[in-house]
Design brief:
Length: about 120
């Protein structure tokens, strides 16, 4: 391989890794939004307090005679939770990628040995 081919391959690999990380952060932020909305919905429907330690605390209340939900978010805890979920997604993506490459390589070897016989 030439130096140019190697550098292009390296840039493509780095870009693929960056896209994977950004996608994982966006997906984990979406998961966190769904979890927070679910906590508010549980509090609103059941009338009980919900506590996600370090992330969010919700409790039922009334405002002008109407049911309401009060909440106290923790930005640092939510950010840490988003990063942890993103880390899990990136690790799962790497595992999935390695398995896919191993399957493709095994399939190519099987086809090559079948065509040689």
């Amino acid at each position: 391989m030439t130096l140019v081919t190697r550098s292009v391959h390296g840039v493509a690999t780095a870009f693929r890794g960056l896209v994977t990380v950004v996608g994982a952060v966006v997906a984990s932020a979406a998961v966190m939004v769904v979890v927070l909305l679910a906590a508010v919905a549980v509090t609103l429907t059941t009338g009980t307090a919900v506590r996600l330690p370090g992330v969010l605390r919700t409790w039922p209340s009334t405002e002008n005679g109407a049911p309401a939900v009060l909440f106290e978010p923790d930005g640092v805890g939510t950010g840490v939770a988003v990063l942890l979920v993103a880390l899990v997604l990136v690790m799962a993506s790497g595992l999935w990628s390695r398995r896919s490459r191993a399957r493709a390589l095994a399939l190519a070897r099987a086809r090559a040995s079948a065509s040689a016989s």
